[in-house]
Amino acid sequence: MENLLINRPEFQLSQIDFIIRILVSIGIGAIIGLEREHSAIAEKTPSFAGIRTFVFAVLLGFIGGLFYFILTPWAFMGVLSSVVVLTILSYYITASKGDIGATTEFSLLISFFLGTLTFLGFLDIALIITVFVVVMLSIKLPLHEIVGKISIEELYDFIRFVVIALLIFPFLPNKNFGPYNIINPHEIGWVVILTSGLGFIGYILMKFLGAKKGMLLSGIIGGLISSTAVTWILAKKSKENETLSSNCAIAILSASSIMVLRVLIWTFIFNVNLFYDLYPSILLIFLTAIGITLYFYFKQKGIDNLDPSIRKDKPLDLQGAIVFALIYVTILLVVNYSHENLGEKGFLLSSAIAGFSDIDAITITISKLAGPNLAHQTALNALLIAILANTIIKLSISICTGSKTLRKLLFIGYGMIVFTILSLLILLNF
Fold first, then answer.
1. How many beta carbons lie within 10 A of that of residue 31, not counting itself?
2. Quick one: 254 and 367 in the same domain?
C-alpha cells in the first residue's frame, strides 16, 4: 500500500504526489520569476522579485496549504498575511520612488495561490493560470501599443457589444414559441451576438494585422462557427469598400473550407460508421475549397495592406446582424414547414432547405438517423445536398450584397465547389 503523508477524510497525499506537486510548484515560480527578472533587465528598472523570490512565494503557498491540513487553517492565514504584508511594503517603497505600477506585486500574490492550488492537486488549473499570467506579463508593450491605436468610436462599439452580450443576452427567455414552436429569443440573440461579434473581430484583426492577414484569420475563426455569417459580413464589407474585395473573397472561401471540416467532425462524433462512408467525398470537397482559397491567397501576395485613411466599414454592425437573424428565423420556419408537410419523401428536399441556414444542425440530425432509420447512401446524399445548398445560399448572399470583384472571384471559387459536389452526387448515384 502506498505511504500517505496526509491521510484525512477530506484530503490524502502520497509521497510520490508530494514530490510531483512540489516540483510543479517550483517550475511555476521559476517561469513567472524568469519573465519578471528578464523584464526588469530589459527595461533597466529595479525589481524586488526575481526568479528566487517567485519560487519562494509559490513554495510559501504550497507550505501554507500543507499547514492547513497538518496544523490548523489559521496557519495558512498566517502565511498568507505575511506574504501580503511584505508585498504591500514592497509596493510602498517602489511607489515612493515614483514607480506606481503594481504588476509584479500582484504576480507575486497570484504565485502564492498557485502554490496552494498545486499542493491541493489542481495541477491543470494552476498550469493554465500560469500560462495566462506569463502571457499577460510578456505582452506589456504590444498591449500598450494596441490600446494607443484604439479610436473613441471603436471603444464605444466595444462597450456596446459588451453591454449586449453580458447585460441583455443572458436575460432573453430561453424557450420556444410561435409557429412550429421554434422561435427562441435566446437563440436569436445568440445569432445577433455571433454575427456582430465576428464582424467586430474581423475589423480588429484587419486593423492590426493588415487587410490580408486579418481577413484570412477572421475567415478561419468565423468558419469554426458559421461560414454563412462570415459570408454575410464580409460580402457587405466588400460592397462598402471595393479595395477589400479580394481579401474578403479569400476569407469567405477559407471559412467555407473550415465548414466542410466541421461536417466530418460532427459525423465522427455522432456516427463513426457514416464517417467512414462519408470522408472520401467530404475530403475531396475540402481539398477543392482549400485549393482555390490558397490559389487566390498566393495570387494576392503582392498586394499592400489597406491604407487606414480609406476605411469605410464600421467596427460593430448591429443593424446588419439583426437583419441576418431575421433571415435565419425565416429559413427555420421554411425548414420546419418542409419537415411537417413533406414527411420522409421530402427528406432530401428538407436537407437542402436546412442547409440554407445551418450545416451543423442538419449534419447532426442525419448522423443520428443514419443506420437503423436511414440508409447510409441516403444519408450521404442528404449531407452532400445540404452542403450544396449551403454553398449556393452563400454564393447568393455574395451576389446580392457583395461588390463586383467579390462576385467574380466567388463565382470561380464556389463554382468549383458546386461542380465537385454535383460530380460526386452523379458518381455516387448512377
1. 20
2. yes
Please name every residue paired with 14 in a beta bridge, in sequence order, or none if there are none: 4
On whether both 351 and 202 belong to a single domain, the answer is yes
Counted domains in the chain: 2
Same domain, 227 and 339: yes
pTM listed for this prediction = 0.56
Distance (Å, whole) CA 42 – CA 37: 9
DSSP assignment of 250-301? HHHHHHHHHHHHHHHHHHHHH-HHHHHHHHHHHHHHHHHHHHHHHHHHHHTT
Quote the domain boundaries for residue 342.
150-429
Task: Report the candidate in 345, 419, 414 with the shortest Cα–Cα distance to residue 382.
Answer: 345
Nine cell digits for residue 122: 489542481
Interacting residues of 417 by C-beta distance below 8 A, sequence separation 6+: 256, 285, 288, 289, 292, 391
Give the domain-ending residue among 145, 171, 195. 145
Same-domain status, 122 and 233? no
In this structure, what C-alpha cell is assigned to residue 306?
489597406
Say whether 358 sits in a helix, a strand or coil: coil
How far, CA to CA in Å, does 403 sit from each of 22, 325, 377, 409? Answer: 60, 22, 39, 10
pLDDT in tens, 105-154: 788 888 889 998 998 888 888 888 888 888 887 776 566 566 666 677 77
d(CA 178, CA 333): 10
Single residue among 121, 145, 169 that ends a domain in this structure: 145
